[in-house]
């Protein structure tokens, strides 16, 4: 089937022009990636951004999948000899998969059912007579279908079989299914109860022991929590509206008279609903709610991941990294400016060994020997104790001491990637290296770890894993290409996410680099085995070569525009090198003079911006952060303390903040700002530095409640208590006023103005 029918639909849904959708679809079909299209084909797409290009891609794929299913259904019905022009038209007009499957249901090959068994007994004609609800003698008519050999020994056998057939007709009625689907979504409720006897085991699901809420408003995290509780056999979960409402809809559709046949149809309707339609609709609605919950959870995950990947990098500095510990000691490594491992040792500054002097001497020696500029300490076990040790051994003040989130570092250290990078070192060394490199460049290091292991998601193991992977891959690719990749130092894993490459070509680039030395120009990248023109076109603009012969090779300007920039420099009487280094000259470029059929103002403005600050890192500048001295464990916390913290994870109900006590605190949505907010992302981002007030310390459950409000205890002050009667009076007056206005509006509606 043709895509032409889809372009208009997608354009309407996204609020863009049909021409933009067609152009984008053509580029995608030609093998172009989302980052490439949104960055280097703005004239073609009408400047659609990454989100819009990805939406065109995903929606077009959905509609193409729908088309394939339509073709398969039409073929199946045709092979049964039951295809009519009207039926084919209904199939082709179906806009969703559920509507399509409803149309196909009566023709779908099915297992032996009560209805098919009744048909085998010859009761279908009786079912038709009853369903027509004409005035017949039901008892006499039913007697005509008695047949001992076929198992129809009584009138009730005949009527029961006929009802089974009618129940299946009702179940297969597309219009009835459509109405019930709407009812289940609009009026359905999640009803969760604890399985008797499991109260103690299921304590973490206590909120859902006796819980009820509408399907259409239930938030993602509660849907996924209830489903997980059900999966772990702690909760019983039902989904659906009131049965009477559903049966009433069916009866209105199928009961046309008030005779004895109609009573049989009513019985069939009730049976058809409870035995067939209700379980089917419940399954559908649960899948619908799960899909919606998955989409919300994946959106939260990907937004958190983007913020984490784009955290401020320290940059190319010599770093000493420490993976802290108690009994087994602290693994210490020194890394060069490009992240290369220079030295590794183990120190024991903490309990039980407390070898302070030896540890101090070794750290000072490593710092001096390797010209260390910063120290990265993992935020796991013994982190605060190790931080205190480092800060008190008399290192030069200019050496930064930074706590680094080590979530997922252990996953990396045991991975094939780590073994390939450091085959001669154990897990502890690899983990320390990862901590140090995270400080230098979070993006370059975190791409080596499965995003699900980084710890910024919500119920990530419960959502659709395929959809999650696709979304996370899109996010990582967007971040990698948005920042740009230094081709001469990037790992294979980082290169894999560059537009147009992938694992195989990334490995080929690394192999070529190892065999021939650093790339001297982007043009040389074409010499990499199996890297053809298409891959080069997609990747070149996102690959950087610092200090190369051509200054443009370190910028985001695509090589296909080099000739244009040469012309600009020539017209201004300077070299390209001079143009790039002189921002005043760049600002004087008359952009409109260079507009042509291939290049428009959007691309020219991007070029101008890039020439002004070639190769700049779009991430924010690194700022040093320190936890509160003396607050190292939960027992050190007191309600009312104001402490510095770092946002580690954002959910729909709030944000988790690391305040340096080995247990993140929760800032509930209601405690995130002085004003009302609906979404935590309105005020915080992952890796953001905040000042949080301790509101609650629950040692047994290891829970910390925090607030970001400027004065979270204001509601408990004496002045607020004094104002309470006044506020109550004001609220009462407002309620009376609103009530009078409502009544006045009703009277106007009834009698006119």
TrEMBL record:
Domain of life: Bacteria
Gene Ontology BP term (one): translation
Gene3D superfamilies according to UniProt: Nucleic acid-binding proteins, RuvA domain 2-like, Tex N-terminal region-like, Tex RuvX-like domain-like, YqgF/RNase H-like domain
Entry-linked CDD domains: S1_Tex
GO molecular function: mRNA binding; structural constituent of ribosome
An example Gene Ontology CC term for this record: cytoplasm
PROSITE patterns: S1
Start-end of Basic and acidic residues biased regions: 728-745
The protein's name: RNA-binding transcriptional accessory protein
Organism: Cyclobacterium qasimii
């Amino acid at each position: 089937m043709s895509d032409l029918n889809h372009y208009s639909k997608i354009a309407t849904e996204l609020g863009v022009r049909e021409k933009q959708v067609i152009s984008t679809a053509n580029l995608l079909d030609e093998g172009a990636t989302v980052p490439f299209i949104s960055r280097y084909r703005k004239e073609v797409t009408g400047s659609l951004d990454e989100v819009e290009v990805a939406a065109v891609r995903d929606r077009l794929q959905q509609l193409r999948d729908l088309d394939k299913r339509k073709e398969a259904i039409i073929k199946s019905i045709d092979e049964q000899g039951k295809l009519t022009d009207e039926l084919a038209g209904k199939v082709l007009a179906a806009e969703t998969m559920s509507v399509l499957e409803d149309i196909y249901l009566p023709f779908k090959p099915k297992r032996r059912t009560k209805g098919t068994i009744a048909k085998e007994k010859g009761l279908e004609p009786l079912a038709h007579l009853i369903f027509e609800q004409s005035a017949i003698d039901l008892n006499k008519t039913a007697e005509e279908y008695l047949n001992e050999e076929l198992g129809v020994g009584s009138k009730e056998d005949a009527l029961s079989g006929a009802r089974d057939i009618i129940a299946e007709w009702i179940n297969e009625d597309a219009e009835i299914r459509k109405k019930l689907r709407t009812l289940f979504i609009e009026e359905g409720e999640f009803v969760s109860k604890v399985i008797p006897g499991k109260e103690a085991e299921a304590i973490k699901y206590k909120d859902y022991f006796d819980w009820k809420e509408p399907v259409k408003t239930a938030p993602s995290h509660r849907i996924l929590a209830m489903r997980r509780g059900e999966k772990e056999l702690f909760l019983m979960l039902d989904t659906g509206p009131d049965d009477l409402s559903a049966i009433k809809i069916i009866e209105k559709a199928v009961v046309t008279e008030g005779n004895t046949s109609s009573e049989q149809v009513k019985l069939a309707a009730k049976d058809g609903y409870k035995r067939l339609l209700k379980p089917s609709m419940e399954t559908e609605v649960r899948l619908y709610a799960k899909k919606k919950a998955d989409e919300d959870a994946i959106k939260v995950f990907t937004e958190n991941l983007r913020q984490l990947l784009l955290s401020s990098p320290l940059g190319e500095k010599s770093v000493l990294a420490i993976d802290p510990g108690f009994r087994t000691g602290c693994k210490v490594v020194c890394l060069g400016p490009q992240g290369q491992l220079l030295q590794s040792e183990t120190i024991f500054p903490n309990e039980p060994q407390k070898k302070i002097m030896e540890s101090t001497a070794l750290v000072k020696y490593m710092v001096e020997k390797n010209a260390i500029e910063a120290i990265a300490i993992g935020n796991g076990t013994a982190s605060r104790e190790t931080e205190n040790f480092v800060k008190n051994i008399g290192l030069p003040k200019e050496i930064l001491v930074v706590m680094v989130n080590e979530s997922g570092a252990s996953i990396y250290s045991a991975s094939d990637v780590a073994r390939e990078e450091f085959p001669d070192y154990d897990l502890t060394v690899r983990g320390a290296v990862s901590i140090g490199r995270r400080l230098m460049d979070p993006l370059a290091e975190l791409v080596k770890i499965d995003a699900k292991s980084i710890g910024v998601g919500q119920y990530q193991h419960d959502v659709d894993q395929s959809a999650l992977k696709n979304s996370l891959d899109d996010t990582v690719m967007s971040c990698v290409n948005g920042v740009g990749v230094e081709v001469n130092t990037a790992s294979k894993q980082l290169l894999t996410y560059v537009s147009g490459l992938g694992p195989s070509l990334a490995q080929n680039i690394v192999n070529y680099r190892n065999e021939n030395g650093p790339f001297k120009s982007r043009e040389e990248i074409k010499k990499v085995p199996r890297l053809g023109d298409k891959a080069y076109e997609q990747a070149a603009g996102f690959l950087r070569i610092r200090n190369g012969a051509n200054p443009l090779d370190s910028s985001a300007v695509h090589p296909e525009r080099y000739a244009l920039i040469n012309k600009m420099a020539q017209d201004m009487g300077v070299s390209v090198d001079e143009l790039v280094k002189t921002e005043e000259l760049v600002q004087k470029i008359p952009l409109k003079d260079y507009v042509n059929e291939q290049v428009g103002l959007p691309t020219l403005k991007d070029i101008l911006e890039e020439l002004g600050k070639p190769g700049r890192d779009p991430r924010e500048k690194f700022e040093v952060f320190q936890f509160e001295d003396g607050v190292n464990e939960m027992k050190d916390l007191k309600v009312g303390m104001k402490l510095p913290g770092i946002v580690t994870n954002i959910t729909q109900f709030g944000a988790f903040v690391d305040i340096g006590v080995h247990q993140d605190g929760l800032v509930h949505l209601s405690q995130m700002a002085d004003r009302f907010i609906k979404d935590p992302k309105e005020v915080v981002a992952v890796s953001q530095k905040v000042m949080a007030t301790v509101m609650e310390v629950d040692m047994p459950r290891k829970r910390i409640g925090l607030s970001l409000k400027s004065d979270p205890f204001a509601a408990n002050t004496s002045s607020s208590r004094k104002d309470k009667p006044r506020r109550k009076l004001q609220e009462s007056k407002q309620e009376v006023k609103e009530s009078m206005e409502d009544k006045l509006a009703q009277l106007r509606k009834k009698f006119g103005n």
